[in-house]
Amino acid sequence: MDVVLWDIKQTAAFLKRSEGAVRNMVLRRQIPFRKVAGRLMFLEHETKTWALNSPGVSLEQLRKDQ
Question: Rounded to two decimals, what is the model's pTM?
Answer without folding.
Answer: 0.79
